[in-house]
Amino acid sequence: MRSTEKLLWSVALPGFGQLLNGKYIKGIAFILLEVLINVQAHLNKTIILSFHGKIEESIQHVNYGWLMFYPCLYFFAIWDAYKDDGGGQHPYSYLPFVFSAYFMTIGVIYSSELTLFQVIGGPIWLPFLFVVPGVLIGITIQKIARR
């Protein structure tokens, strides 16, 4: 159950799970990378615009070059905190995290082009929607690989 706590703190902010695990250098490095990417991608303003339904404005505001780094940092930090605390001991247990990062990155790539009803889409909502197939495909491949 403790591994889940570290995983959830890393969901809140990459690096928090590492700090809770006592991996201070790694945790600070993840936090600094998150802040760097967040600032350079204009992520907080983009999130606010997306939550207000201003998808087109959020698309214009975000720096996609920097935003492309976020999914991999995010899911790697979550996996790392979970693994360091003893979670994910089964073979291929990393696959849902890997496929989530991959699909979220694809969501970022297409987020300026795919919008559903001009509300769902953009650089925040579409990548998060793409996490769902990433998790499902990762779990499926994980189960197949364990056989």
Describe this entry's structure for a reader:
Keywords: Membrane, Transmembrane, Transmembrane helix. The chain crosses the membrane at residues 63-82, 94-112, 124-141. This protein is an all-alpha fold and 147 residues long. The protein has one domain. It contains nine helices and two strands, in the order ααααααααββα. It has helices at residues 2-12, 16-20, 24-41, 43-51, 55-61, 64-67, 70-84, 95-110, 122-146; strands at residues 115-116, 120-121. Strands 1-2 form a two-stranded antiparallel sheet. A hairpin with a 3-residue loop joins strand 1 and strand 2 (120-121). Helix 1 runs antiparallel to helix 7 (70-84). The chain is flat and about 45 Å long.
Low-confidence stretches: none
Number of strands: 2
Count of domains: 1
Query: How many DSSP H or I helices?
Result: 9
What is the general shape? flat
> What distance lies between the first and last C-alpha atoms, to the nearest angstrom?
26 Å
Q: Let me know the largest β-sheet.
A: 2 strands, antiparallel
Strand-residue proportion? under 5%
Question: Over all CA atoms, what is the radius of gyration?
Answer: 16 Å
Q: Report the order of strands and helices.
A: HHHHHHHHEEH
Helix content: over 70%
Strand line-up of the largest beta sheet: 1-2
Class based on secondary structure composition and strand pairing: mainly alpha
Keywords: Membrane, Transmembrane, Transmembrane helix
Transmembrane segments: 63-82, 94-112, 124-141
Keywords:
membrane; transmembrane; 75% helix; two-stranded antiparallel ribbon; mainly alpha; transmembrane helix
